[in-house]
């Protein structure tokens, strides 16, 4: 199998490497010529065997829309486009119509795994027709973690379902990170009693009900900077938490925990930030390579 991959940033570059390691030929295109395999998007499309499959892995919003529009001009009937970025699920409906009018197929894929995905594999949530998903299944199987398919991949539903599932996933992620951050601050507040905060988090990694990959990343962050003294408590949000709340309001689903975690991020940008938000910032940096502000 030979596919095109547009966007060779932190995740896209690692995805290209993992796919190649799994025996899938990849031609990558990026605006940065230093990492790109071809000079233009047109060159990428022209060099792929038909029916062509192109995975788009660029920032959500106008950039993704622009790439999709350009691909609609370069590809032809029977080809397939996969949007693997963090797009809002409502954009999938517009993308599918734009491409569908020219007979080009479309899949939306929510992707989790961050900068660790090359080694560990990526959690995949996919939306689209069963026929289209079947065409791309070898790609998904190469990207997902080792083990049973259903533990790292789901065909969540029709077009938009993949990005919707990823949106909810990220909302949950916000709340879990906030809880770890608040726990960290309380432990630090009782330094007269708790003498080893990093060790306490590390001890939770086996046998406890709060163990998780995020907990492992929290331990990594604390082992490198036990007091989180090197970073600010300023925490950005990528947008998916906001979209989760919009959907919660639209469907009258109470989300007090997730909403509180998002508002806490807003508060963090109004001052120096608390130890809790330092921990959240450190976690975002650990799993996604998201930038942090230095203290």
Automatic annotation (TrEMBL):
Q: Give the keywords, sorted.
A: Gluconate utilization, Oxidoreductase
The protein's matches in SUPFAM superfamilies, at most eight in alphabetical order, are given as: 6-phosphogluconate dehydrogenase C-terminal domain-like, NAD(P)-binding Rossmann-fold domains
The answer to whether the entry has keyword Oxidoreductase is yes
**Pfam families for this protein:** 6PGD (PF00393), NAD_binding_2 (PF03446)
Entry's EC annotation? 1.1.1.343, 1.1.1.44
Alphabetical list of InterPro entries matching this protein: 6-PGluconate_DH-like_C_sf, 6DGDH_YqeC, 6PGD_dom2, 6PGDH_C, 6PGDH_NADP-bd, 6PGdom_BS, NAD(P)-bd_dom_sf, Pgluconate_DH
Full protein name: 6-phosphogluconate dehydrogenase
**Into which family does the record put it?**
Belongs to the 6-phosphogluconate dehydrogenase family.
Q: Where is the 6-phosphogluconate dehydrogenase C-terminal domain?
A: 162-291
Q: Which GO terms describe its molecular function?
A: NADP binding; phosphogluconate dehydrogenase (decarboxylating) activity
């Amino acid at each position: 199998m030979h596919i095109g991959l547009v966007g060779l940033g932190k995740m896209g570059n690692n995805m290209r490497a993992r796919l190649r390691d799994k025996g899938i030929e990849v031609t990558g295109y990026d605006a940065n010529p230093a990492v790109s395999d071809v000079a233009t998007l047109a060159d990428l499309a022209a060099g792929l065997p038909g029916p062509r499959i192109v995975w788009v892995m660029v920032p959500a919003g106008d950039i993704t829309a622009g790439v999709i529009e350009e691909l609609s001009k370069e590809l032809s009937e029977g080809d397939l486009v996969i949007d693997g970025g963090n797009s809002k699920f409502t954009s999938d409906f517009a993308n599918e119509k734009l491409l569908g009018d020219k007979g080009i197929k479309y899949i939306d894929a929510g992707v989790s795994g961050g900068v660790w995905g090359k080694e560990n594999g990526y959690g995949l949530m996919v939306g689209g027709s069963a026929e289209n998903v079947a065409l791309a299944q070898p790609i998904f199987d190469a990207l997902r973690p080792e083990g049973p398919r259903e533990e790292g991949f789901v065909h969540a539903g029709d077009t938009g379902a993949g990005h919707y599932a990823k949106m909810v996933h990220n909302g949950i992620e916000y709340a879990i990170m906030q809880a770890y951050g608040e726990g960290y601050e309380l432990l630090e507040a009782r330094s007269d009693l708790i003498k080893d905060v990093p060790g306490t988090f590390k001890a939770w990694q086996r046998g406890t009900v709060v163990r998780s990959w995020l907990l492992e990343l929290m331990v990594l962050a604390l082992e490198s900077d036990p007091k989180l003294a090197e970073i600010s408590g300023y925490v950005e949000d990528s947008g998916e938490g906001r979209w989760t709340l919009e959907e919660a309001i639209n469907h009258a689903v109470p989300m007090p925990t997730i909403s509180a975690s998002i508002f806490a991020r807003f508060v963090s940008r109004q001052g120096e930030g608390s130890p809790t938000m330092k921990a959240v910032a450190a976690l975002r940096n650990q799993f996604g390579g998201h930038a942090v502000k230095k203290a």
